[in-house]
Amino acid sequence: MNVLLLTIASVLALYGLISVVLWLRYMKTIRLFEVTDCLNDEAIYSKLSVIVPACNEEECIEQTVRQLITQDYQNLEIVIVNDRSTDNTGAILEKLLIQFPQLKVVTIYDLPSNWLGKNHAIDQGVKHATGEWLLLTDADVMFSPRSLKKTVSYALEHSLDHLTIVPDVFYGGVFYRAFLAYFGLTFFSIAMVTHKAGLGAFNLVKTSVYQEIGGYEAIALHPLDDMSFGKQIVEKGYKQGLACSGKGFIMVKWYESLFDILRGFEKNQFSSMNYRVSAVIGLCIYSLLTNVYPFAGLFFGPLSARILCGISVLSLFVAYNHLSKLMDISRGYFLLHPLSALLFLGAMLNSMVKIINRGGIKWRGTFYPLEVLKKHI
């Protein structure tokens, strides 16, 4: 038994050291956007169309629209897609249209077959857009002044076809933000390995590139639409950039609570594994070994194995320490890393079990059969 523990601890320690070195090197390429960043006011910017799908977003849609309207981006078009809302979203948009006639409001009453709601809303919004660049975002995202100019300027300067940005999540208590830190660490790790990324809060893309990859029609039934969109862009040979929002630059509340995170992840997690049970089982084993065992191994087994587990834990601390410089999180959240990992696995297993038992995904009042979703992986 001691030999087994020592072998596992040795492999994990080596894995941790190699991973953190590669991760730190990769993270040096991530651009951090700050509210205080300087900007060339004399630059000429291409026309930008912002597409905002909104389904029952009465609590946030007005604030989002007003923040977009007050941007100093001169050649700006804002397209709001009211996607079958049953609350006051439509009435709020009508009021805003009177005050801001430059707004474009597209209203969707029915969802066609073989489409997910948000994916279809974005597709319809783009059809009404006339900009050379598209910004696909969410109805609850808040933009600081000049953020659009700064991001478009960066994309042009670096000859990017697509820029996606990790937003500043401004909400949550200790356990919520500890999970956020774990999620951020996981997201950047996946981006490092795959060189592909996409985030619903901020997907800036050339309109020509959007059209050439088939737009959202190519991912009509992909629940993880933002990541699928980013993947399509890279696989078609276009240049992608990944950046991070500093405090207050591009903000989102994300979820109300950890319980809401579990519910929100319900439609996404199993789909990220291409609906394969074997992939979920493999992920669970991998995560338990790399994220949970090193912490537990500090307290049992031979001394040499404990020391090696300590090296693994120290590697994680180094990663959290660097992440805290990019995201508004505490490096101390690494102490809750194993708990966050278990919560993430719980969300994955919850997603898998519910989707299999239901025979599909039920989201915002619409049911999508699993057999249909699998055909569109």
UniProtKB/TrEMBL annotation:
Catalyzes the glycosylation of 4,4'-diaponeurosporenoate, i.e. the esterification of glucose at the C1'' position with the carboxyl group of 4,4'-diaponeurosporenic acid, to form glycosyl-4,4'-diaponeurosporenoate. This is a step in the biosynthesis of staphyloxanthin, an orange pigment present in most staphylococci strains. It comes from Desulfosporosinus meridiei (strain ATCC BAA-275 / DSM 13257 / KCTC 12902 / NCIMB 13706 / S10). One of its GO terms (molecular function) is glycosyltransferase activity. Pathway: Carotenoid biosynthesis; staphyloxanthin biosynthesis; staphyloxanthin from farnesyl diphosphate: step 4/5. Belongs to the glycosyltransferase 2 family. CrtQ subfamily. Residues 49-174 form the Glycosyltransferase 2-like domain. Its main location: membrane. It comes from the Bacteria. InterPro entries: Glyco_trans_2-like, Nucleotide-diphossugar_trans. The lineage of its organism: Bacteria, Bacillati, Bacillota, Clostridia, Eubacteriales. GO terms for cellular component: plasma membrane. It is found in: Cell membrane. Keywords: Carotenoid biosynthesis, Cell membrane, Glycosyltransferase, Membrane, Transferase, Transmembrane, Transmembrane helix. One of its GO terms (biological process) is carotenoid biosynthetic process. The chain crosses the membrane at residues 6-24, 273-293, 299-320, 332-353. This is 4,4'-diaponeurosporenoate glycosyltransferase. It holds the Pfam family Glycos_transf_2.
